[in-house]
């Protein structure tokens, strides 16, 4: 369900993603498939397991 929500509302948009602890991942949502969110931050890809996401918000 979360994967469909991300694709529908955040695909090709800039977001911040919080997974706990001090780290917040930022970037443009370029893909969300197989329960993995992929962010592009200035050409560097970050892959995040959707089940680890606590919060996600637009920039």
UniProtKB/TrEMBL annotation:
Pfam families: DUF6897 (PF21838). InterPro entries: DUF6897, MM0924_fam. This is Uncharacterized protein.
